[in-house]
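lol forgot to send this yesterday, sorry. struct tokens for the thing we talked abt
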């Protein structure tokens, strides 16, 4: 339970009048900030007055540091990355999204699964204070590799870096997730909410996340696609393929979910990229 904010009659009327006059929600939030309102509280107030779900409102992108690096979106029909040919079979403009074919070979997929299997644990998420927590929205098991932990992981990191023109040092450790029938990952954003109290801690090293690459290590018999509800798009989980998408903090179009596996199992490797170097590579 969280307490409801009392909204004065004047403020309520001002928000309604301003939006009726054709000003967008971002502009209303900006004006409220200029008048000294706390951005987090403003979002809740505007959501309540306009009867909008809070998650659909843009998070304030105000941050102390200048924006960092942005990825280069792979172009169709094919990109060569570190000597490896990757097909681009579907492109979306907003958010920038690509379905990538053959980012991993069948053998690389099998090898990643074999390396990860003995190290699986119930997958965690980062809470609003920046702490790792068990999350009922995410019922899969997972593990992380450290940067360049084994030659295969290093090779994949170099491939993703070349593909998106973002140095491997901007990557978080490769995460492996394993879903069984019924397991899913409910709709969420991969960017960190600038209005959450833990934001500064989570982004102190590396800054904001800028893109995700979800690589499918097997083909579930049924279900397990990655859905983008704002686009009405579901990407089929197929071994060796991936979905890449890029975003800014607060970008609601990048909402996505791992749909429940209906039959068989699902294995993925996820690479999240940051706007600034996240870790120094452990090897030269
Ligand atoms: O399981 C999926 O398809 C999506 C995974 C995901 O959203 C993530 O790892 O952030
Ligand atoms: Fe995600």
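and heres what i got for the seq, position by position
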């Amino acid at each position: 339970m969280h307490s409801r904010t009392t909204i004065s009659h004047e403020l309520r009327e001002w928000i309604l009048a301003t939006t009726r006059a054709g000003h967008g929600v971002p502009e209303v939030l900006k004006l409220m900030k200029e008048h000294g309102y706390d951005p987090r509280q403003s979002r809740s107030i505007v959501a309540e007055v306009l009867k909008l779900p809070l998650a659909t409102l843009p998070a304030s992108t105000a941050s102390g540091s200048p924006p960092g690096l942005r990825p280069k979106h792979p172009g169709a029909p094919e990109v060569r990355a570190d000597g490896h040919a990757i097909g681009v079979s579907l492109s979306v403009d907003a958010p920038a999204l690509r379905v990538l074919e053959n980012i991993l070979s069948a053998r690389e997929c099998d090898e990643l699964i074999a390396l990860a299997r003995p190290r699986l644990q119930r997958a965690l998420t980062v809470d609003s204070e920046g702490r790792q927590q068990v999350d009922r929205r995410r019922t899969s098991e997972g593990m992380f590799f450290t940067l360049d932990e084994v030659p295969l992981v290093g090779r994949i990191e170099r491939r993703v870096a070349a593909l998106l023109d973002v140095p491997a040092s901007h990557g978080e450790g490769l995460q492996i997730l394993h879903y069984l029938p019924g397991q899913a990952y409910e709709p969420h954003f991969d960017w960190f909410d600038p209005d959450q109290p833990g934001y500064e801690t989570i982004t102190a090293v590396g800054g904001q996340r800028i893109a995700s690459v979800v690589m499918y290590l097997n083909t579930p018999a049924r279900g397990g696609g990655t859905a983008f509800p704002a686009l009405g798009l579901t990407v089929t989980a197929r071994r060796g393929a991936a979905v890449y998408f890029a975003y800014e903090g607060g970008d609601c179009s990048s909402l996505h979910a791992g749909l429940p596996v209906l039959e068989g199992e699902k294995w993925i490797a996820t690479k999240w990229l940051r706007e600034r170097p996240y870790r120094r590579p452990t090897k030269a």
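Residues 9-56 form one domain. anyway ping me if u want another try
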